[in-house]
Write a structure and sequence with these properties.
The protein is of the alpha/beta class and about 375 residues long. Helices cover about 35% and strands about 20% of the residues. The protein folds into 2 domains: about 140 residues, Enolase-like, N-terminal domain (Enolase-like, domain 1, 2-Layer Sandwich); about 220 residues, Enolase-like C-terminal domain (TIM Barrel), CATH 3.20.20. The protein contains 13 helices and 14 strands. Strands 4, 5, 6, 7, 8, 9, 10, 11, 12 and 13 form a 10-stranded mixed sheet that branches. A 4-stranded antiparallel sheet has the order 3-2-1-14. Helix 1 crosses helix 3. The longest helix has 22 residues. The chain starts with 14 loop residues before the first strand and ends with a strand. The chain binds magnesium ion.
């Protein structure tokens, strides 16, 4: 059990307003990620976002969000609605205690998954608020190691001439590396696309591949051995996301680093993979693991083991967290979230820049307001 909670902040600031919104971001074109190819899921047409906006009596403001792809958005919103009233009157600086209190309130439905992701929006909003109060970008508040983070662009599994064209366009737009999705039913076709891409881009361009959990263990070993000759930065999710033993065997057998972790939803799940030696590059996703508070614990475990860090999705949040990681980092420049905010992620010479605005440096766009299907506001009653 956590220590006895101090529910109010008699001598300091306190939360007096919490607004939650459920927003459905439409995607410009349906996305058929690798998992869609074997028929496991339908192409993605929209992403659900839970926004949390938190205000205090001192006039501070914080903005956070979490998300759900395919199913789960309304459930995140419903869980957060149940938790939000207990934020009122709390000291917004007590991010650790508030996280524990909210987690314990929902403990009977689990410590990860959507129970954690409903808290993530609140936790991210409180860290945003903390950094805004300090007048610092979040990366600086956390203790930045760099002002810009290596970024790569993801290239979908389209026909070959298009793969090369998309990659070249991304590099011209500032990406510092290319990650190719491998998802052809014929394994030889995937290897051939990679061979052509490497040949066309040259040996100097950092290349990664993402297998999105599609292989069984024997196939993963065969494919990964065949991939060694391409000098990849990493091979991502060669196996089921929860197969720590299988990933560890691959990581031990290969020279090419193994990256995994995007699907995990708690510190404990990440700790199991890290302890097992399952990855050389960890890929936590702050909204997915419960927010910045748990993300920092995962980053500390990864640092202790000497691992690289390449956070998954939500570039707007993760650029701050990657900038505050002491070891090698990469971030994917995903532009999906851009319409939700008035600000843009800035990419220059292969890196995303940490913005100089306080907090995350984000404000909600009019488009996001228009895509809101439900919202609720809790305020302190006098
Ligand atoms: Mg991936």
């Amino acid at each position: 059990m956590p220590e006895a909670a101090a529910p109010t902040a008699p001598s300091g600031d306190r939360i007096d307003r919490v607004r939650l919104s459920l927003v459905f971001l439409p995607l410009a074109a349906p996305v058929s990620d690798t998992k869609a190819h074997p028929g496991r899921s339908q192409p993605l047409t929209e992403v659900a976002f839970l926004f949390a906006e938190i205000g205090t009596v001192d006039g501070c403001r914080g903005l956070g969000f979490s998300y759900a792809k395919r199913a789960g958005g309304p459930a995140l919103y419903a869980h957060a609605k149940e938790l939000a009233p207990q934020l009122l009157g709390q000291d917004p600086n007590d991010t650790g205690r508030i996280w524990e209190d909210l987690a314990w309130a929902g403990a009977s439905v689990g410590r990860g998954g959507l129970a954690a992701q409903a808290i993530a929006a609140v936790d991210i909003a409180l860290w945003d608020l903390k950094a805004r109060r300090a007048g610092l970008p979040l990366a600086k508040l956390l203790g930045a190691y760099r002002d810009a983070v290596h970024c790569y662009a993801g290239v979908p599994s389209t026909p070959l001439p298009e793969v090369v064209e998309t990659a070249q366009r991304a590099l011209s737009a500032g990406a510092g590396g290319i990650k190719l999705r491998l998802s052809q039913p014929d394994l030889a076709a995937d290897l051939e696309r990679l061979r052509v891409l490497r040949e066309r881009l040259g040996d100097g361009v950092p290349l990664m591949v993402d297998a999105s959990q599609q292989w069984d263990r024997p196939t993963a070993h065969r494919m990964c051995r065949a991939l060694e000759r391409f000098n990849l930065v990493w091979i991502e999710e060669p196996l089921d996301a929860h197969d720590a033993v299988g990933h560890a065997a691959l990581a031990a057998a290969l020279d090419t680093p193994i990256a995994t972790g995007e699907m995990l939803t708690s510190v404990t799940e990440h700790a199991q993979l890290i302890e097992a030696g399952a990855s050389d590059v960890v890929q936590p996703d702050a909204p997915r693991v419960g927010g910045i508070t748990p993300f920092l614990r995962i980053a500390a475990l990864a640092d202790h083991k000497g691992l690289g860090l390449a956070p998954h999705f939500a570039t707007e949040v993760h650029l701050h967290l990657a900038a505050a990681y002491p070891r090698s980092t990469w971030i994917e420049h995903v532009d999906w979230l851009e319409p939700l905010f008035n600000e843009r992620v800035e990419v220059r010479s292969g890196r995303v820049l940490v913005p100089d605005r306080p907090g995350l440096g984000l404000t909600v766009s009019q488009k996001a307001v228009a895509w809101t299907t439900d919202h609720i506001e809790f305020t302190e009653t006098a």
